[in-house]
Amino acid sequence: MITADVTVYPLKTSSATNVINNSINSIKNNGVNYQVDSMKTRITGSKEQVFSSLNTMFSEAERTGGEVSMVVNITNSVK
């Protein structure tokens, strides 16, 4: 089990909120638990599920927003 805190930053778009929301919504069926707050999305699951979800989020943000930056902090700590 791992946890990733992820933030997506659309760089050149006038609809950043849509890009971020589409990115988050893209992982609804990935089998991970996720919580959204004002600064990040926290994803918890198996290593394979979390890394797959990060890839899905980045790909969706890139598809809908063009240039994006994604900041991720990953831990396998149980705290």
Automatic annotation (TrEMBL):
It comes from Thermohalobacter berrensis. Gene3D superfamilies: 3.30.70.930. This is Thiamin/hydroxymethyl pyrimidine-binding YkoF putative domain-containing protein. Residues 4-74 form the Thiamin/hydroxymethyl pyrimidine-binding YkoF putative domain.
